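To start, an entry.
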Amino acid sequence: MSLERVGNLIDNRKDEYLEQLFTLLRQKSISTQNIGVRDCAELLKGMMKEIGIETRLLETAGHPIVYGEIMKDPSAFTLLIYGHYDVQPAEPLDEWLSSPFEPTIRDGKIYCRGVGDNKGQLMAQVLAIKTYLDAFGEIPINIKLVFEGEEECASANLAEFVENNKELLAADLVYTSDGPMHDSGSPFVLLGVRGMLYVELTAKGADWDNHSGNKGNIVPNPSWEIIDLLRTMRDENGRVLIEGFYDHIVKPTEKEIQIIKKLPYNQKDIAEKIGYSGLDMDGETYYRRLTMEPTFNIAGFTSGYGGEGSKTIIPSKAVLKMDMRLVVEQDPDDIFEKFCNHVKKHAPNIEVKRLGDMKPSRTSADHEIVGVVSNAVRNSFQTDLILQPSMGGSLPDYVWTKILGIPSVVVPYANFDEANHSPNENMGVQNFLDGIKCTCYVINEISKNHSNVKLQETSV
């Protein structure tokens, strides 16, 4: 079965496919603000039905799941494609060069909120199914699609949904396209994600702000209470001092270490792309820290007056937000308990609130299906790919590897500088078209090789 037909179809339908993407992009779907989410789900359902995908909305305690399937044979290989149709808020609006919800092409890139994260990559999957059907008349494997509307608010109801629908979602592999490609422009095959725990600390002083002179040394400043607590949580080298924080971390395998050592690394280029000229580490250290080690990050600190000019006050309240990226087998529940115990010991008056979490996940590099997907990606892009044990960020990948117990791979289609979550989010037109093609190649490669794939139990 020649895939040349696929490439020709994509080329001929470029404008048509872009307009379909633009239709989805114009529909707001800001999950954290509950703006347009259900309308977007209905729109996406209609698009999928038109292609020939049996599609329905499945309710959750929050926003609905758009579920679709094409079932060839219950005994055939089943590929489950995951993505999300919700997007981040567009603010700050004044930093956008064009309207955030009106897709605009500039210099070969589509600019719009959600184009890279994740509507452009999601539509590449959907349109790949259309392209493959039109090229060959049928899909040679079973395909299930799960598109959620809450990824941007920590996938609050996805785990429960998967737990309650194991039979419906039964599959042999989960395939996700999210996040950016490698900074070199090479295609990625990622075998896992870091988890996350997001917390908020609140310290309170007086009932209202006080004059910093008249009440100085009398009224306590809650900002210092949080700062003093932070000093007990981390040493000068960045090591977390919370008791048991590093318990249960699984050491990388020898194969994973070798994969990390082979990853391409250009320190100067990465420094320029992330806007940090102080980057100073070798490639192995860079990737080990990015994929195999947890983080302990201050995401925001608010207290007192931060406006223009001066206002001499002792603030009445201080709020700190922190996110911790976790690695296998760190569990957010366990880390949160240890975090709270530490706060209770050192600053019992500070309130701790849990804002969100996600478990880490990793599929073994030794799994045979990893080789099948890698071959497909390599053949599609006609270049060497980069195999990485984990991405630095977080996705709800654990619902597949932990709850369903099946392997999962992430193959990003967006450009490295997609600016997701930022003003002027973008995705290259060619990245979008290449994503459609790549998904077709993955479907085709699996159909040729699935009988040789041993469905192994996913390790970590």
